[in-house]
Amino acid sequence: MVAVTLVDGVLADTIPVSDRGLLYGDGVFETICYRRQQLLQLPAHLRRLQQSCERLGIPLQLATIEQHLNFLFSCLPSGPEAPVEGVVKIIVTRGDGGRGYAPPTSAVSRSLIQFHPMPAQYAEFARQGIACMLCQHRVSVNPGLGGLKHLNRLDQVMGSRELVAAQNRPHVDPMLQEGLMFDNQRNLIEGTRSNVFAVIRDQLCTPDVTAAGVCGIMRQTLLAWCAGQGIGVVVRTIPADELMLASEVFICNSVLGIWPVNRLYDFTSDATRVLTDDAMARRAQRGLACQ
């Protein structure tokens, strides 16, 4: 099926050229897994959406977003053609504004809600694991925006360009599916579309994303699940050299779930790290599947 898009609750495929999300990336978004007529972790996503809008001073009525979601589902095929899985993206911008960066004093936000089919290969990657590369483009550090899922995604676009270029090389690993991104000190921040966990010297770790990167819902869910299981997780700085010594690495986000990483490639030094341990990733997959 093709994507379905609502703009302010109306079926549409265009927005005004004056929209500040288009002009300045002035907005935020959420990406949610749709499965068996349910949006997984919807309350957490809506809570983060509201908190993000509050941080940026963008007006938001969550009740309106929920009404638009219900209408979106009514637009999907039913019966045998009904999608079993999909991806729902909610975008909220500051709405229309004139020329210049200064936002209007009485902004009226705009919402875009889209439904996309779930990529068919995601289930295979969760089962088989993937390979990751170390990207050379550096993530911008800004504590004022750190953790937010805002619309300024140029760092991720540049990292994804590196990944696509590597995927198009002759004899490339067909399981190369993600690029890992670092700050200017070569400390791990995140993947181009995921958060990262690593087992280093028998300690489960994940990068601090308060100054850069996205504080993902699946990352938060994993941290809470680990706490409930008595599994210690250290949120800390992870230098690139230390990452290449990890015994286990896995990535996560709300749509793909948890993918074990089997190989790490550093193409600049022609180094490869083969990872044979996926015990923690498999345990987390099983644990979260039961929730």
From TrEMBL:
**Gene Ontology BP annotations:** 4-aminobenzoate biosynthetic process; folic acid biosynthetic process
Gene3D superfamilies, A to Z: 3.30.470.10, D-amino Acid Aminotransferase, subunit A, domain 2
What PROSITE patterns is this protein classified in?
A: AA_TRANSFER_CLASS_4 (PS00770)
Catalysis performed (reactions): 4-amino-4-deoxychorismate = 4-aminobenzoate + pyruvate + H(+)
Please report the name of this protein according to its UniProt entry: aminodeoxychorismate lyase
Assembly, in brief, is: Homodimer.
Natural source organism: marine sediment metagenome
What are its E.C. numbers? 4.1.3.38
Q: What class of enzyme is it?
A: lyase
